[in-house]
Design goal:
Strand content: under 5%
Structural class: mainly alpha
Distance between the termini: 107 Å
Number of helices: 26
Largest sheet: none
Order of helices and strands: HHHHHHHHHHHHHHHHHHHHHHHHHH
Radius of gyration: 54 Å
């Protein structure tokens, strides 16, 4: 039977294969829809009936419910399909109406556009004619304004003439002021001929009024004994008509100040300044007139072939300027300043006088400088005198720092470069002479203990004094960029001096214990100390800020002075302008101290050979000796250390000596630990003797320089503690360290395993805790085991 079923199955499969037709896309879509419906029906029946067979009796009710819902949905679809054509037809009707309205509007727009174009063509001739009329009206209006301006100028000119004929000076001044206001209003105009005519008319009447007032003002100044050429020996008696003269002075100064606006306007195009001097406001008119006799005297004495006009004596005319400032300042304060205050002018009479006199000095200096650029001696003398003049001008005469002085003349590029070249040349010559001097490496304060703290040799003090003088010279320069150029010159000089110190040090390196070698070391430390102080100085901090604000500044050769890293540190105030130099000097200082200590240690090692090879294993115990004393073999080493410490203290300054003795202590500590302690075995007496030699003899040698010298010999001190332990303590410590070492080794081999318990013995202290209880903090447990193995007195040995 099974065979028959199998045969029927095979026949059915062959029949299906023979009737197989490829499926199209529509068949596939239909099958997918049927699959969705089938799944929905299965889910619906599962939800309503579930697995309860008794619920099958409700299938009839369920079928009726579904049919009712189907009919409801069909009615909704039919009603929607019947109402849609009505809405669509209404929308189509509205669209056709809108299209018709649009066509109508387009036709109207075309008609209007054509009519508008026709109207514009008909109106164009009228527009052209109207534009011609408007242009003509504008031209006539401009001509009328031009003629009105000319008429106004003529009226002002006639009014000024009538006022001068009637001696109405104030009215004439008012008219001149109105003319000056008109001139200022025409500055933007393109009527050049009108401007020229107005300016010429203004200059004409201004000159007439100014000359009249100046003549009266000069006569009045003569009555008042102006100017005061030399200091008055005794006060002059006031004239009989002092009240009248005072009122006339008040009137003339007020009138001249009223002419100031027109005078500034006229002198605007003719105002000239000296090279390097920034543009400043013109002098007030009264001071200009008061300067005339002083200018005449100055040019008489200090120009031409006069003997007083000497290139080698700039102090003659500079001193004369300062004397005139001092002799006439009281007159300006007492006579002129009150009048200026009453006129409401914001002018300081004394400062105006200084400005006028300073202009004479600027002209003279600008004339002489080009001829002095080729003579270093005369140029240096001139710079010294200018600096002294500038200092007295700012301090004694209270000349404002915002106004230019004589130093502005020196900021011209050729002059500034010459100044830098001469400074460099003179500084290098002085460095050569100071290093070749007989007492270059001796200290002039060596016999005065209070002043010899840094023990700086004469060459180092002279060099830093030279840098300080250079700083004082360029401190007054009004330009930060120029100041920075001198700062970079100072950095160059410091680096050159450091190189010279290095060269001399290499010559003296064969005998680092010589006084000259120590003097070089003191010189490097002194320069480093002074530069560190300068780095915190307000002036150099301002220059540091200038470096950041000006950006990357280059030296004369074009090389950048500061790299991006150093510039960033300057901006954050983490570095200083001398940071790189301080690093180089610190390196030199460290190298020299290292050489010095190496020499000292060679001598100490030589003296310590007997002590190193002493019979530490067979020394008698402390109980067998009446008193402990220093080992005889240690005496040469102790004497050597003491002598070197005294010698270093005498030759080196305080900070260097502190570094030196601490370095010597560290090297001694390592030497004694490595070459004495670890090199030998010790019995009880040897350990006690070593501890006595160290704690009672070596450590006190350094006790003069610190309170706890044993802290600088921690290896030796802790080694003495371990070697001097009692037998019981040493045994317990050795067992503890060995067990801890064995446990550590076993834990390293078996990482997953936990630490083995100690049974009922309780927790044991760690090796570090045990060593700390003994006072051992520096030595590691492995080092302590080595030291314990150096003990010779163990039970059973």
């Amino acid at each position: 039977m099974d065979a028959a079923v199998t045969q029927d199955d095979k026949m059915q499969k062959s029949t299906n294969k023979s009737n197989f037709v490829p499926k199209t896309n529509e068949d596939s879509a239909s099958e997918s829809v049927h699959a969705v419906h089938r799944d929905f029906v299965i889910d619906f029946v599962q939800k309503e009936v579930g697995s309860d067979l008794k619920a099958l009796k409700n299938v009839g009710e369920l079928l009726e419910k579904v049919r009712a819902e189907k009919e409801t949905l069909e009615e909704q679809v039919l009603s929607a399909s019947s109402s849609s054509p009505l809405k669509v037809s209404a929308a189509l009707d509205a669209a056709e109406k809108a299209q018709a309205a649009m066509k109508s509007l387009l036709q109207r727009q075309t008609v209007l556009s054509d009519s508008l174009d026709q109207h514009l063509q008909e109106a164009q001739p009228w527009v052209d004619k109207l534009c011609q009329n408007i242009d003509h009206v504008d031209t006539m209006e401009r001509r009328m304004k031009y003629m009105q301006c000319l008429q106004h100028i003529e009226e002002l000119s006639d009014r000024i003439q009538q006022c001068l004929m009637t001696n109405s000076v104030w009215e004439a001044i008012d008219s001149v002021a109105a003319m000056a206001s008109l001139d200022a209003g025409l500055q933007e105009s393109s009527c050049r001929h009108l401007q020229g005519f107005l300016r010429a008319t203004l200059r004409f009447w201004h000159k007439i009024i100014k000359d009249r007032l100046a003549s009266d003002f000069e006569e009045l100044l003569t009555l008042l004994h102006w100017p005061s050429i030399s200091p008055p020996i005794q006060p002059l008696a006031p004239p009989a008509n002092a009240q009248e003269i005072s009122s006339q002075l008040d009137l003339l100064v007020s009138q001249l100040m009223a002419l100031q606006t027109s005078d500034d306007l006229i002198s605007e195009k003719t105002l000239t300044t000296q090279p390097g001097v920034p543009m400043a406001a013109p002098l007030s008119l009264p001071v200009q007139i008061m300067m005339l006799p002083l200018t005449k005297r100055f040019r008489y004495h200090f120009t031409g072939n006069r003997q007083t006009n000497s290139l080698g004596k700039p102090e003659w005319y500079l001193t004369q300027i300062l004397m005139w400032m001092g002799n006439n300042s009281a007159f300006m304060d007492d006579k002129i300043q009150p009048i200026l205050d009453r006129t409401g002018a914001n002018v300081n009479a004394r400062v105006e006088l200084c400005r006028g006199l300073l202009t004479l000095a600027q002209e003279k200096l600008a004339h002489d400088l080009p001829r002095l650029l080729y003579d270093d001696t005369l140029f240096c003398h001139l710079v010294d005198e200018v600096l002294q003049f500038e200092k007295e001008l700012r301090s004694t005469h209270s000349y404002p720092a915002s106004l230019p002085g004589l130093l502005h003349i020196t900021l011209e590029e050729a002059t500034l470069q010459k100044w830098l070249t001469v400074e460099r040349k003179m500084a290098l010559e002085k460095v050569d002479s100071m290093l070749s001097a007989e007492g270059a490496w001796s200290c002039q304060y060596r016999d005065i203990s209070d002043m010899d703290e840094l023990k700086a040799p004469d060459c180092a003090e002279t060099f830093m004094t030279l840098l300080l003088v250079i700083t004082d010279r360029y401190r007054s320069l009004p330009c930060s960029r120029a100041q920075l150029k001198f700062l970079y010159l100072q950095r160059e000089l410091v680096d050159d001096f450091r190189i010279r110190l290095t060269q001399v040090m290499k010559e003296e390196s064969r005998s680092p214990l010589s006084p000259r070698y120590s003097a070089i070391l003191n010189a490097a430390n002194y320069i480093s100390t002074v530069l560190a102080d300068w780095a915190d100085n307000v002036f150099f901090l301002q220059l540091q800020q200038a470096v950041v604000s000006l950006g990357e500044v280059e030296e004369e050769g074009g090389r950048p002075v500061l790299g991006p890293m150093e510039a960033g540190r300057l901006a954050s105030l983490e570095g200083s302008l001398f940071e790189s130099l301080l690093a180089l000097l610190d390196r030199l200082r460290g190298d020299m101290i290292g050489r010095l200590l190496d020499t000292v240690m060679r001598d100490v090692r030589e003296k310590a050979q007997l002590y190193r090879q002493d019979r530490w294993l067979s020394l008698p115990s402390q109980c067998d000796q009446a008193t402990m004393s220093l080992s005889s073999s240690a005496c040469p080493m102790m004497l050597c250390v003491r002598d070197h410490l005294l010698n270093l203290q005498q030759m080196l300054c305080g900070p260097l000596f502190q570094t030196a003795w601490q370095g010597l202590a560290d090297r001694l500590n390592n030497f004694l630990y490595q070459d004495v302690v670890l090199y030998n075995h010790f019995n009880e007496g040897g350990a006690a003797q070593l501890q006595f030699d160290m704690t009672r003899n070596l450590f006190p040698l350094f006790g003069h320089y610190c309170k706890r010298p044993e802290n600088f010999f921690k290896h030796v001190k802790e080694a003495c503690i371990i070697l001097s332990l009692s037998i019981g303590s040493a045994l317990l410590l050795r067992d503890l360290l060995r067990e801890a070492l064995e446990e550590r080794v076993s834990l390293d081999k078996e990482r997953p395993g936990g630490a083995g318990g100690g049974g009922g013995e309780g927790p044991r202290p760690s090796p570090e805790q045990a060593l700390n209880e003994l006072g051992v903090y520096r030595l590691a447990p492995s080092d302590v085991l080595i030291l314990l193995n150096l003990r010779a007195s163990w039970p059973g040995q």
